[in-house]
Amino acid sequence: MSTAFDPIAATCPAPLAETERVLLGHGSGGQLMAELLADLTPRLGGSALEDAAVVTTGTPEVVMSTDAFVITPRFFPGGDIGSLAVHGTVNDVAMMGARPVALSLAYIVEEGLPLEELRRVTASAATAARECGVRVVTGDTKVVGRGAADGLFVTTTGIGVRLPGARVSASHGRPGDVVLVSGPIGLHGVTILSTREGLGFETEIASDSRPLHRLVAAMIDAGGYGVHTLRDPTRGGLASALNELAAASGVGVELEEPAVPVPAQVAAACEILGLDPLHVANEGCLVAFVSPEKTDEVLAVMRALPEGSGARRIGQLVEDHPGRVVMRTLVGSTRVVDMLVGEQLPRIC
Amino acid sequence: MKYLDEYRDPVLARSLVDQIRAAATRPWSIMEVCGGQTHTIVRQGIDELIPVRMVHGPGCPVCVTPLEVIDRALAIAARPEVIFTSFGDMLRVPGSTSDLLSAKARGADVRVVYSPLDAVRLARTHPEREVVFFAVGFETTAPANAMAVIQAAAQRLTNFSMLVSHVLVPPAMVAIMESASVDAFLAAGHVCAVMGWTEYEPLAARYRTPIVVTGFEPLDLLEGILMAVRQLEEGRFEVTNQYARAVRRTGNTAAQDAMRRAFRVADQTWRGIGPIPASGLVLAPEFAAYDAVLRFGVDGVTATEHPGCIAGDILRGTRTPLECPSYGTACTPRRPLGAPMVSAEGTCAAYYSAGRTPSP
What is the SS3 assignment for B195-241? Predict the structure, then answer.
């Protein structure tokens, strides 16, 4: 019953011709998306774009960000597409060390959407904006034919004012900086997946969608210029965010696996589906690079706020392996933590 | 957390590493059969901590599904009346000219399901469509896939069918025992949860090779390795069970009954390895009406693999990804040349996602 070595059988197919169509994975916040943006952004005449940018150099500095929301389902435990749109944009502005001031809100509505649903989303967005202390100052509504959109798409643009004392940027991480995370990871992505797919996990789980600008203000207040880098790890998860920041800062990241806060429900769901919690989306936590001498003060003010109550150190920046994220594993070995490639694909067994 | 944290305890893990170091007097070669085990070993870096050569086995169902089956899946999925359902990690496996994700982008109705019974449900709720389920995997997925076709028959569904490419572990282990030098095996705990371990007992005796039924968490693997090393050091070759919390000697007999009802054992070609006698499952004659190959007339679709990667050597454990000239250069998870780079359970993908590179 032995199988002799057969060089023809023991080979793989030739590479596929590169697809010239957009795949769902191009929107998943990982390597595919990075390649797509590397293709598109030069056509805008500029360099790589961040989630938000400073648009004036005078005082105060004005920060601007834009985002689009196509989430399914539109209503999920912990929020809906309206509150998510507000929180997402508020957070992108906040991650530049800014106080969000005003938002635009635009809808692309598929013909046939129940009006009641549009009212609910709008009321939810309004409540979220009010709670953030941000005004919705302009908007737009377009209706497209059935099939031309999936129910409701929302786009937002946010502007904010840079906080005095803030000098955060993706490129400001320095060797020796401490890597902080504000709370448990993976809740949003697992909630959406289990709601969308009707997986019916028995444990209660809700998205972490919430605004982080107050947390950022407290961190800047306590840490000043010692707060080097802020990022909310949304699509692509903590792994993709840290890889992007490591590359932008030209530093290596060393993570401690036991320190990374993965809630029990997230760990269990990821275990069942074969996903990596480090690749799962978040909408209510941030990761920060903070100079070591400011870390204790920054951690203290973070933990004093509900949105930062689970804040903790998860690692540090090093000179070695610039642009790479390395994790010390539970058993004491090490591995590289890479970006998500395309879509997360649940495994067979 | 209950059932997970207990098996990821760093202190216990380091103690087991020390025990393996103390017990092993030679660099034994131990093959973990299952891709899930490979993934834990590589993610945790277990193989880099112990003086044992871990050889990664063929236990990735995505990797061993033949090219022509992928091509048949693509041909079926392209039909406008078809809803093609599959476990997620089959979608990116390259066929001869495309993969299912790209087919989806071109308009094919390809859907990820989490259970084959979801596909049966889809067939019931979409009587106007043909629902096809891609039934792949080892003995772990076979019982649920068997239940899908049994239920479809019980509900007299005429618009449900399965594209079956099932493989069995013991014949592959025999093929490896015949051709490769592996001192001991860690058998796949979940396969044994279904099948038990009686079929491994004659193999251990005939090939004088220890086989340890092993789980998937870091501590499971370390303990399984330690049990295998101790047998090797003491000159024993038994089947022992590390995964006692999930596996009984006789396995799950109800699941085995469902498999026997829906499937028949048949010769099977393993991608990258070649044909292995009596190593696969096909639909039993009474369920032939649910065979998607016959229903859609794709039995004429055949494919020949072209040179380009060393998947066969990888799957039989004779070479590691780091010895492949394409690994990490021409072949990445983004543009996989071969199936072991596709699935999270594939050895090449496990190496790549853990950032492993050839030593300079």
Answer: HCCHHHHHHHHHCCCCEEEECCCHHHHHHHHHHHHHHHHHCCCCEEE
pLDDT for the residue A91: 97
Domain count, chain A: 2
If asked whether residues A99 and A194 sit together in one domain, one would say: no
Q: How confident is the model at residue A2 (pLDDT cuts 50, 70, 90)?
A: very low
Q: For residue A348, is it within any domain?
A: no
Contact list in B for residue A18 (CB cut-off 8 A) is 335
Contact A268 B4 (CB under 8 A): yes
Determine the residue of chain B that is closest to A257 in CA distance: B44
pLDDT on residue A12: 38
H/E element holding A176? Answer: none
Are A270 and A204 in the same domain?
yes
| Burial bucket for residue B34 (CB in 10 Å: 0-12, 13-18, 19+) | buried
**Measured between beta carbons, which residues in chain A are less than 8 angstroms from residue B104?**
24
pLDDT at residue A5, as a whole number: 37
Question: Could you tell me the residue ranges of all domains in chain B?
Answer: 323-353
Q: Is residue A342 part of a domain?
A: no
CATH number reported for the structural domain that contains residue A130 in this entry: 3.30.1330.10
Of the residues B68, B86, B305, the best mutation for testing chain A's interface (the one with the most A CB atoms within 10 Å of its CB) is B305
Nearest to B10 among A8, A258, A334 (CB): A258
B window 172-191, beta carbon within 8 A of A: 174-175, 178-179, 190
3-state class (DSSP) for residue B32: strand
Query: B344 and A333 in contact by Cβ < 8 A?
Result: no
Establish if A28 belongs to a structural domain.
no
A267-305 residue pLDDT tens:
988 888 878 999 999 999 999 999 999 999 999 999 999
- Mean predicted confidence (pLDDT) in A299-313: 98
Mean pLDDT rounded to a whole number for chain A: 89
Q: Does A18 touch chain B (CB under 8 A)?
A: yes
Q: Nearest 5°: phi and psi at A292? A: -60, -35
What global pTM score does this model have? 0.83
**What's the CA dihedral at A249, A254, A257, A260 to 10 degrees?**
-40
Chain B CB within 8 Å of residue A44 CB: no
Distance CA B131, CA B343 (A): 24
For A4-44, the pLDDT digits (tens) are 333 333 333 333 444 578 888 888 878 888 888 888 888 88
Per residue in A107-128, pLDDT (tens digit) is 999 999 999 999 999 999 999 9
CATH code of A322's domain: 3.90.650.10
Same domain, yes or no, for A75 and A216?
Answer: no
Cα gap A95→A289, rounded to integer Å: 12
Q: How far is B236 from chain A (nearest CA, A)?
A: 24
**In a shared domain, residues A208 and A305:** yes
Residue of B105, B255, B299 whose CA lies nearest to A24: B105
**A38/B contact by beta carbon, under 8 A:** no
Choose from A11, A253, A275 for mutation: most chain B CBs within 10 A: A11
- ipTM above threshold 0.95: no
- Domain of residue A326 covers 178-337
Q: Could you say which of A19, A267, A268 has the minimum Cβ distance to residue B102? A: A19
| Contact state of A7 with B307 under an 8 Å Cβ cutoff | yes
| pLDDT at residue A192 tops 50 | yes
Q: Is residue A30 part of a domain?
A: no
Residue-wise pLDDT tens digits, B203-231: 999 999 999 999 999 999 999 999 999 99
The verdict on A102 and A191 lying in the same domain is: no
| Residue B197 neighbours by CB distance under 10 Å | 24
Structure token digits, residue A330: 């539970």
